[in-house]
Design brief:
Blueprint: H1 5-11, H2 13-19, H3 29-36, E1 47-50, E2 63-65, H4 72-79, E3 86-88, H5 101-118, E4 124-128, H6 132-143, E5 147-152, E6 163-166, E7 169-172, E8 177-179, H7 185-193, E9 198-199, E10 205-208, H8 217-239, H9 247-255, H10 260-278, E11 300-302, H11 308-312, E12 320-322, E13 324-332, E14 335-342, E15 346-350, E16 352-355, H12 359-364, E17 368-370, H13 375-383, E18 385-387, E19 389-395, E20 406-409, E21 419-422, H14 424-427, E22 431-437, H15 438-444, H16 449-464
Parallel strand pairs: 3-16, 4-5, 4-16, 5-12, 10-20, 13-17
Antiparallel strand pairs: 1-19, 2-18, 6-7, 8-11, 9-11, 13-14, 14-15, 19-22, 20-21, 21-22
Helix pairs in contact: 1-2, 2-8, 4-13, 5-6, 8-9, 8-10
Length: 466
């Protein structure tokens, strides 16, 4: 069995941590010098890409989660059609596969099925958003004989799937992985595109941090087991509650008394397996419902040539108007009229609309709906949470780091740069991706690009110049 972080969370506890191989070999800085063959000053990066998903006007976050007080019923309410005119899709509307690209694709196809049940073939449908959900809906509707047009505010397709160029190498700044390839609809898209994929071995990890940490495998394993045990205890405690609270409160009941390096180590484990997974702080996650989704079996894989190739296969049989922002949606028995701005400013009329606007936008700067959306949908939007997982991609003259997939850092600045992905085995180029999630990511976005890079380099130099 291939273990993923989600499987660690499902199994949980000390037994789960041991079974998942989380007590992996870790080495000190001196050991790294022998293993990697490098020592001395860490060079400055030659090229940098930085994400700011919390500030992104067309996303306001990375992906959704169930916040304190939210439940899967809110996702169902968000997904529900309104009067056979308004239809909704997107990862936030998926109960079985939320917060994933495959969940977005499946939601788009579900919305297309709902349109087909409500409207006759040949009806006109406008799809708002050219991300995975919108394109999947439009492709299916066009194939079924509907008159489809997609309007997209960005100047590119893909939405939160965003393959950018880092000095000649494609790097994914949004979604990166197919999580579980077996039976996954994105696997089918990747195969259709002829896109190469490379499996990620999360167990192939080295962790650095406070002085002495990483010298003893048992220390790392104890930290992983303590974190898993705290999550197990939180699950049990949540079952006895009458009212939802935060996962963080219950976890803190188990590990809140830890101090010093031990506290930092356990915090790093929780950051890695929970906060980076759900793009939110433990304090933001519902204790009742934080574990979501059924998932797919099989390996988790990344794209050496970029995720966008798989999503591009969905653009088939319909026009996409880029740079067209929807400002207002008027709807009624006679159909829908969209007021737009940008390149296509004016009005777009259709028999129905499929809304795939990200939850973050629906929460902060949604189009004006006339009449307003039903109360249960508005309440669901309010209760659901929109998380942030930011990346910084750094390209160096040559690799100076361990030949491992994941490089962990138990940072005294709690939560910052806890995890790095080594892209050299994937791309053949000396590239590292650093991650920050939740409140750490949002605070990081208040800094300048120069300050973010300086912070990232300080973390790497703490590891490799120690």
């Amino acid at each position: 069995m291939t273990w993923t972080r989600r499987r660690f969370l499902v199994v949980g506890g000390a037994a789960g941590a041991a079974a998942a191989g989380l007590g992996v070999t870790a080495c000190s800085s001196d050991e790294h010098a022998d293993e990697a063959g490098t020592a001395g000053p860490v060079p400055d990066p030659e090229a940098v890409l930085i994400t700011r998903w919390a500030e992104d006007r067309w996303a306001f976050g990375s992906y959704s989660h169930l916040a304190v007080g939210a439940s899967p019923e809110d996702r169902t309410a968000l997904a529900a059609p309104v009067d056979d005119v308004l239809f909704f899709a997107g990862e936030a509307t998926s109960v079985d596969q939320p917060s994933t690209v495959h969940g977005a694709v499946e939601s788009g196809r579900r919305a297309a099925d709902e349109v087909a049940e409500a409207l006759d073939e040949g009806a006109s449908v406008v799809v708002v958003g050219a991300g995975a959900a919108g394109l999947a809906a439009a492709q299916q509707l066009a194939a079924d004989g509907y008159d489809v047009v997609v309007v997209e505010a960005r100047d590119r397709t893909g939405g939160r799937v965003w393959t950018a160029d880092l000095d000649g190498t494609p790097v994914d700044l949004g979604a990166s992985w197919i999580h579980g390839v077996d039976g996954n609809p994105v696997t089918e898209l990747a195969e259709e595109a002829g896109a190469e994929t490379v499996a990620t071995d999360y167990d192939d990890e080295v962790v650095y941090g406070p002085e002495g940490y990483g010298e003893d495998d048992e220390v790392r394993e104890e930290s992983a087991q303590r974190a898993g045990g705290a999550l197990d205890a939180a699950r049990g405690a949540a079952e006895g509650l009458d009212q939802d609270t935060s996962l963080g409160e219950l976890v803190d009941d188990e590990v809140g008394d830890l101090e010093g390096d031990e506290a930092l180590r356990v915090d790093r484990e929780l950051t890695s397996v929970v906060e980076h997974e759900y793009a939110a702080d433990l304090d933001e996650l519902s204790a009742f419902w934080w574990e979501e989704g059924e998932g797919y079996d099989g390996e988790d894989v990344v794209f050496p040539g970029g995720y966008a190739a798989a999503i591009d296969t969905l653009v088939d049989g319909f026009p996409v108007q880029l740079g067209v922002a929807v400002e207002a949606v008027s709807w009624g028995d006679d159909g829908v009229a969209l007021t737009t701005s940008g390149r296509g400013s004016g009005e777009v009329e259709a028999d129905a609309v499929v809304i795939t606007i990200p939850l973050g936008v629906l929460k902060q700067l949604p189009p004006e709906f006339d009449p307003p959306l039903p109360d249960d949908k508005l309440e669901a939007i309010d209760r659901l949470g929109m998380g942030v997982l930011d990346k910084v991609a750094l390209r160096f003259p040559e690799a100076f780091w361990d030949d491992r997939t994941i490089i962990g850092f138990v940072n005294p600045d709690v939560g910052e740069w806890a995890e790095w992905l080594n892209l050299e085995p994937v791309t053949g180029e000396p590239i590292l991706i650093g991650f920050n999630a939740g409140s750490v990511a949002r605070e990081m976005e208040t800094r300048s690009d120069e300050e973010i890079v300086a912070s990232a380099m300080a973390a790497l130099r703490s590891i490799y110049e120690a």
